[in-house]
Write a structure and sequence with these properties.
19 strands; six-stranded mixed sheet; alpha/beta; 37% helix; 2 domains; seven-stranded mixed sheet; Rossmann fold; 586 residues; single chain; Nitrilase/N-carbamoyl-D-aminoacid amidohydrolase; 18 helices
Amino acid sequence: MPTLRVALGQVNPTVGDLPGNSALIRDAAARAHEAGADLIVFPEMALTGYPVEDLSLRPSFQNASRAAMQQLAAGIAADGHGDLICLIGYLDHSDQADQEIGRPRGGAVNSAALMHAGSVLARYDKHFLPNYGVFDEARYFVPGNRALIVDIGDVRVCVAICEDLWREGGPTQWARDAHADLVAVLNASPYERMKDDVRLELCVQRARDSHAAVAYANMFGGQDELVFDGDSLVVDHEGRLLERACQFGPDLLIVDLDVPAKDRSAAPNGLPDDDSQILSLGSRSAGSPPGPSRPGVIVPRLDDHEEVYAALRMGLADYVDKNGFASVLLGLSGGIDSAFVAALAVDALGPDRVFGVSMPSRYSSDHSVQDAHGIAERTGLSIRDVPIAPMFDAFQGSLHFTGLAEENLQARIRGMILMGISNAQGHLVLATGNKSELSVGYSTIYGDAVGGFAPIKDVPKTLVWELSRWRNEQATHRGEIEPIPPRSITKEPSAELRPDQRDADSLPDYQILDELLEDYVDDDTGAKDLVSSGFDPALVERVLAMTDGAEYKRRQYPPGTKIGSRAFGRDRRLPITNRWREKTSG
């Protein structure tokens, strides 16, 4: 029975950092080579980072990516690992005429390079281009129409890139028609809650459909709003899980793939006519075992709360580090949102890189100030007090605001303080608003909405509470101090911008609100259907009016980590000027 030792290089590239990403790839290739691998598969766009967005349309970046791949091939060979076969994702471009209406400028292609012995031997271009959710690949890339089949010794490998696996036909059908033993899939699949189970089910189904094993290599790391969770895996031709990598971290899977012998005496059928690429390369282990057998490693999955928290932590850490910020700054009110973001920031960056500011007003309760200092004492972050009453009085002496304008003035003074300290000391300001507030516009533009990154932008209020309780429970289990003051979790939420103010004065119960918003924002459920499902008609009209009217605020809100199926920003894009309104009847 033929055996192929396959490696999956789960790496964290940075968009545009061709030298840095090349170094990550060379390091993983060296370790795979030392482990006796015949083939290593890297993620989609591993060399360039993903998504590259409009960078893909620049000829200068296309040419730089192609040149960097050639240099990488030479570099891996110079390292002494040239006999390792590599599949590496990168950006390339079509050499055909590209001045066609409806064709992305420059003819960019989302490609996989087949590398061996210091050269790029062949290129596979992604066949199916996703154009939904966070993906705009029809805007950026030209679809490929050539199969890439490579025989490594007696094992036949068919190449696919991400979306190619999710659709029937194309590469998965080519793999079956060519009697392939392995479908090698390069992926940049963003994290969503519970998505790992969907991926495994997909790989199992495609393996059974194509009668071939599936090696699914996914990147990890944060890129602006997106987080990639890794979770690379290998299933055999019957769909049995052989190995699975960790989530949200670097990993190198090494799998000994035993494949049943297949009769390939007849020419492959069903491949794209004359454009098919079928190459033959020798296996490092041809004629001899690839070394001692390696036991399969299946890293246990994280539970739901741990998984979401890991995604938020990585999204924040990579945004800060990849953009070159030394530290972060946030307002600490003593409430649940700022307390949770502070604990998350300390976990992501360390306490010495997190700075908080308590900015009490005449309406701030004693327990709010105490809890703001409590989070600092519990986590070790630095905190300073800047009372806003003198500044508020100075503004009011000239402006004489009342009502909502007076309330929002306090929030805007706090925003000005945070941005001023940021300018003076170089911190990145974190906005602490959650998805529930962002949905209904319960935030002050240029006030609590200021900042450079919003870590819980896609986290509903009820989930903020759940994650806060979970984080404290984890600390208790480890014998550590709970990072979040318990009172911040249990007390009734309030903006404290007027006497005895409560969120409940302006908003429905958060449990009900979040259920309604999930249906409306995430699932596009119309008003009539919301009422039919049991929501009060008056509540539906009120919440939908607030949500639709807050679009202009959301456009000006900082980016934040996507964890759900429909995040504001890349996922959900509605016109600001918009007179369409959902109706509960008629």
